[in-house]
């Protein structure tokens, strides 16, 4: 992630990103989202400590909180769960895709937080960073599988170096294939557009 992390620090954060990606395997519908947010918060906390610019807990909460509707999420989980059990073979591929997509999305979020920290936006402008992060992620398909099949534009970006261990290489691959360069660029465009008069 550029100058913010050493290779060793990147490996530790990459391992946390991969753990977030495995959260869809937790069979309890609400628990998987909770564990995902906790691990993401831990990764952002580690990133902030390694950069020498600690982020307050309130800012980390703003950056990681679930902003989707609780009721809709519960209803969707209840409807989806029986079908997943019925069509386990069909859903095996979709589960693997979901894991890869989650790793990709999480790597983008961590990269955006790193960029925001580098530009001095955090912790003072946490809400703005979160809004612009969500907007950038919503504008771009972050699924490596979908992007490969549909041949979306690719931009190489050095947010994740991908050197060293398997987790670091896997996260770097998901970040690149999931359009990390495009997502980070969209975030930076949105932030600079708001900063200019």
* Helix/strand class: mainly alpha
Residue share in helices? over 70%
Q: Could you give the order of the helices and strands?
A: HHHHHHHHH
Low-pLDDT segments, ≥5 res = none
Termini Cα gap: 30 Å
Q: Describe the sheet with the most strands.
A: none
Mean pLDDT: 84
Please give a structural write-up.
Helix 1 packs across helix 8. The model has no long low-confidence stretch (mean pLDDT 84). It is built from nine helices and no strands. Helices cover 73% and strands 0% of the residues. The protein has 197 residues and is mostly helical. The protein starts with 6 loop residues before the first helix and ends with a helix.
Brief sketch in words of this structure:
By secondary structure, this protein is mainly alpha-helical. The protein contains 9 helices and no strands. The radius of gyration is 17 Å and the shape is globular.
Keywords:
single chain; 197 residues; mainly alpha; globular
Strand-helix topology:
Blueprint: H1 7-22, H2 29-50, H3 57-64, H4 70-86, H5 88-118, H6 126-139, H7 144-150, H8 166-177, H9 180-195
Helix pairs in contact: 1-2, 1-5, 1-8, 2-3, 2-5, 3-6, 5-8, 5-9, 6-9, 7-8
